[in-house]
Amino acid sequence: MKFPRPVVLLLALLHIYIGSRLLLPFDVVVQLVGGALLAVCFWLLPKGFRIRDDRGAWALMLPWLTMGFFSYLLVLTLLRDVSLIASALGLSPEAHESWFRISAIGVMALTPAITLVGFFMARRVAPVVNVKVPLAGLPKELEGFTIAQISDIHAGQTIKRNFVAAIVDRVNRLQADMVAITGDVVDGSVPDLAHDIEPLARLESRHGTYFVTGNHEYYSGVHAWIRELERLGARVLMNEHVVLDHDGAALTVAGVTDWSAHHFDPSQKSDPRAAAKGAPRHAPKVLLAHQPRSAPFAEAAGYQLQLSGHTHGGQFWPWNFLVRLQQPFIAGLHRLGRMWVYTSRGTGYWGPPMRFGIPSEITLIHLVRE
Hints:
This protein has 370 residues and is of the alpha/beta class.
């Protein structure tokens, strides 16, 4: 992928802005070193979109990490400029001059520190988050029924087989009643990534693994991925449902295609109502839907719980605030009318390997009687 010239020009101007704002208080040596580092940053930024997988893990990781580094450098520089306006209005000239230098040092120290912490948070195996969901009329046989939810792994350039295998090992230790994968497992084709997601075949639970498509499956060749995930043992739910018999009680587990599916294949338009058609009337209904914005339609179709992903919880500050412009729920458990919606922060990451302040998760849903 080649960056359009306007994007390259914008990136160049932003690097110049950062350099002129942060390096001005220092001597020539610091300015030269800082300018050289910014030039390297500018050179690395587009590489993540172009480097081939055979170049090695760090050749792939470094440009994406640079993107996260630059994101924080830009945001902190902007915040520093806001603070300088405030200090110019409220402090003495001497204090303002002191803050001018100290704040620049602060940005240059905080940015690599935040990048490092965010990198380790993204690359670690996602911790388990336990969530109790109270459902009215839940049969006593389903009290304590557990669903291990994983979402948004995004196997691709920087997430490989070992990362996926570690997730599978942690899920299997939970001994859940079923496993739900709520989309965006991959960023790439089946020939490129089949080896990396093969560990998903080892997922273990009493009632098996259920999968719904995310938008990135459609970017990556959805029909081939549906076949591959079925080969690995997952039941792919395409606007349909299964009825689980758990100790004599019925639980309907439905799944819809991604919200955007009809843009890629009109026959796969997401339809929560069609997914519930023919389900037992009195059995609790759980919907797997990649995007939280399916929730109003799911609630109208009579589901008691929707499990979603897609948002990554925003992945890292401050971009989490932008997710609110597109999705009704960002992360966690929320009530919508008669239905609960749980939105996972994701089990992997997309793009920059960073998760500062917004950790990944493997979710263990516990159904309890209200």
